[in-house]
Amino acid sequence: MFVLVNLKAYPCDPVEVAEAAHEVAEESGVRVAVAPQAADLRAVAETGVETWAQHVDPLAHGSHTGSTLAERVADAGADGTLLNHSERRLKLAEIDGSLSAAERVGLDTVVCANNPEQVAAAAALGPDAVAVEPPELIGTGTPVSKADPDVVTDAVEAAAAVDDSVDVYCGAGISTGDDVESAAELGATGVLLASGVAKADDPKAALEDLVEPL
Amino acid sequence: MFVLVNLKAYPCDPVEVAEAAHEVAEESGVRVAVAPQAADLRAVAETGVETWAQHVDPLAHGSHTGSTLAERVADAGADGTLLNHSERRLKLAEIDGSLSAAERVGLDTVVCANNPEQVAAAAALGPDAVAVEPPELIGTGTPVSKADPDVVTDAVEAAAAVDDSVDVYCGAGISTGDDVESAAELGATGVLLASGVAKADDPKAALEDLVEPL
Amino acid sequence: MFVLVNLKAYPCDPVEVAEAAHEVAEESGVRVAVAPQAADLRAVAETGVETWAQHVDPLAHGSHTGSTLAERVADAGADGTLLNHSERRLKLAEIDGSLSAAERVGLDTVVCANNPEQVAAAAALGPDAVAVEPPELIGTGTPVSKADPDVVTDAVEAAAAVDDSVDVYCGAGISTGDDVESAAELGATGVLLASGVAKADDPKAALEDLVEPL
Amino acid sequence: MFVLVNLKAYPCDPVEVAEAAHEVAEESGVRVAVAPQAADLRAVAETGVETWAQHVDPLAHGSHTGSTLAERVADAGADGTLLNHSERRLKLAEIDGSLSAAERVGLDTVVCANNPEQVAAAAALGPDAVAVEPPELIGTGTPVSKADPDVVTDAVEAAAAVDDSVDVYCGAGISTGDDVESAAELGATGVLLASGVAKADDPKAALEDLVEPL
């Protein structure tokens, strides 16, 4: 099970969460990564935690101002990147281009999607993983794995029908170890979460609870 | 074979092209449609030709200014809609939403894509057809069916692997009956074209040449 | 006073509202215009009412699929166009380009903006008018001219400081003749409204009430 | 005179350019800043050079994935930010929002624009400076201050008419000390440049040439 903590633009200290995540990963043996803002990638990577970008642009070196270039993200220490998060939707051709950019520099990739049809579409583009996150559950604290288990099993099936080497993660509303466990039972091999850790008073305790059943 | 003529924002008379297309369709028995600007849908539909929108938004009735609502497009007489043309790229979730909007009002749909991977992704969303149009060939007069035949056969295979009820059309550089014939031989069941007809001195003659081998 | 009725993507009959607006304009002598979806421009213009587009793109004739070209909007009978509505925000350079496109074909222009600073910015681009519409009041039924009169007088001052030939209209929450009157007292020379007429059971009665104090 | 070096997504070593810029600033007394990708802000700031972001989003803390938050950019050491560069155009309301975000954390701001009208519009939003960069000259090596001197003097006048506390910089094609000098003579108080330094074999020598006449 892979636990990916998206720090979004939350007012947390990214290094503090990264250190907590690193310790929990070391202590539990569970793979845990942290995805900060681009400006914090270097500081987060220096903690030793697995580090993800929240986005990279479908671009190569060149005249592109205000972009997020895969090469610089990788140089700052990132190991992977989210793409097409519901808060950063991309055009179909851009997802394809960003996947190429990520692959060029060896970043792992997770493409987010709303529903099983979009999961299948995303899987057809060849990412390492897709994540199903029904938008109506994001930020609710109601885990998709409980509120709508069919959407997870349908996503697992839809991705496998297109390309069975693509992992399926599950996001939206995940905040406890129990949620992670039910996601695993439905066939997800990872979870995306955000506020449950990034806004916790004690991020380390929140992460320990999350990985406890694993 | 389906021949879809995209008028883009060309300085042609949309009604004149529509009348020519209608006559050629009647005389040849080939299915020919014309896709004008939204403001011209009603006038084009009144010629009796099969009429397509160039785009509809992923929206339902509501507070949306400056949008193209599927309901109004259908009311104006449209039979179908292009989506995700390389000159009007959509986010993955928007393609999904626009397909739902089109289906709600009974519009046929063609989702455009750059390459076989994107064709597979588009097919996973359940349109009536996908169209493969390598961007580097659009507007060149060099037909994809000759310049890069593999991209057409790969697109046909990629779509069939995901959903074999989805037709595959072929765009970019198509302008003669010969181009249409080679597209059909590669497995395409339709062609998208634009300047070859819309900018022709004699659109009817251009269309007659196109459908001649069919 | 200019009364501009934006039909957005509401489920009204655009021709019915257009006919009502035309009659009220004839009977009252007040300038009243209707802004339907692009696909309905021709049918609305045929009623004889002053007809506005909800948007035109910053483009000239050419290879632009799914766009709204000023030339086709004007050909369909439009007299003017809204630009940068809060539901169709444009880039600064696009507003500039859409104003050029509108001017090229003789369309009147109103550029919408959130606040007096943006009103001044819009006025600097040389439209016929700007409209101040605080986003938090759009669709509320609480008229900006009453809820926040300072925003209207500040917008009038801000526009005049940049270019005193630019009219200032007032939108957001306008639905009664009383609202229109207070807008006029604050220096606005026009009002934008939408649901108050488009969603009324009797659009003609709603319009008669609106123009009654004028 | 302020010299702002935009590293865009060029394949340079941002720290090497930053160190060169810092030395030239120290040696010449000229204000020189470097604008790297967000992921490189921290490393660039650590060289001691004045550091600028290439963009910040019109957002506050919250659920925003893949964004560039002013707070994190400032925390990484940025002193200012470009906005609305021709390679990263923003909506009018977004420029307003990004200026608020930058002001909230004390970042200096330069809003880019194509022509004197857009310069006036940008000045109305209250940035520290505007930059006029005719898109047709960007990356050409033909300096706007020589190819089209009127556009610079018109921009200076247009900004002053709206708000005379807003500085006017000049970009597009600037690469030599001579270009900088002619920009200053036309009333610009700063220059934006990119490839002339970022792609130079010897960035320090390129910068020394640039500041030589100052």
TrEMBL record, chains A, B, C, D:
Substrate binds at N6, L7, K8, I138, G173, A194, S195. It is found in: Cytoplasm. It holds the Pfam family TIM. GO terms for biological process: gluconeogenesis; glycolytic process. It is an enzyme of class 5 (isomerase). Gene3D superfamilies: Aldolase class I. The active site is at H85, E133. GO terms for cellular component: cytoplasm. Its EC number is 5.3.1.1. It comes from the Archaea. It catalyses: D-glyceraldehyde 3-phosphate = dihydroxyacetone phosphate. Pathway: Carbohydrate biosynthesis; gluconeogenesis; Carbohydrate degradation; glycolysis; D-glyceraldehyde 3-phosphate from glycerone phosphate: step 1/1. The keyword rRNA-binding does not apply. Keywords: Cytoplasm, Gluconeogenesis, Glycolysis, Isomerase. HAMAP family: TIM_A (MF_00147_A). NCBIfam families: PRK04302.1 (NF003302), tim (TIGR00419). Homotetramer; dimer of dimers. Belongs to the triosephosphate isomerase family. Involved in the gluconeogenesis. Catalyzes stereospecifically the conversion of dihydroxyacetone phosphate (DHAP) to D-glyceraldehyde-3-phosphate (G3P). This is Triosephosphate isomerase. It comes from Halospeciosus flavus.
